Structure formats: C-alpha cells, structure tokens
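Morning. Coffee machine broken again, so started the prediction first thing and wrote up yesterday's gels while waiting. Chain of 238 residues, entered below exactly as on the submission form.
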Amino acid sequence: MILSSKRIYFLNYISSFFYVIKMLAKLEKLVVTEPTWLTEEVQGVEIAVCNFFEGLDKASHDIDHVYRVVKLAMLIGNSEKNLSCEEAQIICLTALLHDVCDHKFSNSCVRKNRLESMLEDTTEQIKTRVIDAVEKVSWTYETSNPNTHPLALELICVRDSDRLDAMGSIGIARCFCYSGEIESSLDCAREHFDEKLLKIKDHLITNYAKEIGNRRHKIMIDFCAEYDEETSYMSYMS
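Came back before lunch.
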C-alpha cells in the first residue's frame, strides 16, 4: 500500500510520540509497550478521513487541521489521566472525525450516514460514544447547550483541542483563509475575532488547554490591536 505524505505525517507523529515516552521510561527503568489503541480499525478510519478531505478544497478545514486536533487531543487526554486503550481509541477517533459532520460540508442526513459508515468496523460501544461526541464538539452546539453536564472525556479533549486550533497564529491564518473561501472581506474576518475567537479562552476546560490558550489568546489580542491600528486610516475617509 502506498502511503500519502499526510498519512506518513500522522503515523510518524504517533511513532515519535511513543518513542519519547519509551526513552523517558527507559531512564526510569520502566517497561513501555507500543500503543495498543492504534488498531487497524483506527487506522482504517484515518484513511477514510484522509480520502474525505482530499475531495474538499477547504484549506481552513483540511486534514492538517484534523491532525493538529488529534495531536492536541491525545496530549490533553494524557494530561488528564492514564488513558485506557479504549479511552485512547475513542479520543483519537473523535478527533479524526470531528469535522466530518461539519454543516459546511453537507446536510445532516448525509453527515450521519458518512460518520456511521466510517465507524462500521468499530465496536458498538465505541461507535456510540464517538458519534455522540462528534455531534457535540462544535462551537454552535456548545453555545446553544451551555448547561450540558457532565461532559465525556473524549468530548472535553476534542473540544479543547479544536478550540486551540482556532486560536493563536494558526487560528489567525485559518480565519482569514476561511474568509477567502466564502469570499468575505478582511473586515468581516476581523469581526469574527470579536464574535467568537477572542471568547474561546473562557470556554477551555482542561488546565493543559488553558495554559496553551492563554498564550494563543495574547497573540490574537496583539494581532487585532495591530490590525486596527493599520486600518485606522479609514476613519479619516468617512
């Protein structure tokens, strides 16, 4: 089987992540095995997600975004607790699939069928938990259902990781990229910071995400101040 550069990136990340863990464990004379959660079923879903995003021309919501969310979600999960094999699988699958049901790509019926099809080789318990989390990841769902508690671990990890990828330098880049994709103006993109992006920091849940979020929030604050300064000439023209 020929691997795409994106898949090699994903598998290399997983391999390097556990290589570091094993090296640290070796220093402490501990025994660490290869990740048992990275099963053929998980890799099969990852291939399906890759194929799905290859057919889209959305640089703001592409497979690179998905992989960044996977990476952060796994790091957040491991910062919260010693993950079981099943918990790690569910977090990884939820992160891989979190944008497959995005309303920007198709109607709700098509999205649900697509999600179930991609998870057909997983157990019913894993499928149920992943689908439930994926349907609740979005900012729209969160802000429309603010009192939904308690939140499942996989939902917390993927929500936080997805929100972090909308912040900082990468968040700025994605915001203006999306604005171009929908043929919106620069000023509309700037307004999106006030409408959503600058509010994300207060919605982060885990300590790990909050630490990263504070730094990325400051980057956006500084950017907005500079943008407003550089576009202030408009006040003299009106």
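Residues 193 and 224 are 8 Å apart (CA to CA). Going to sketch it on the whiteboard this afternoon.
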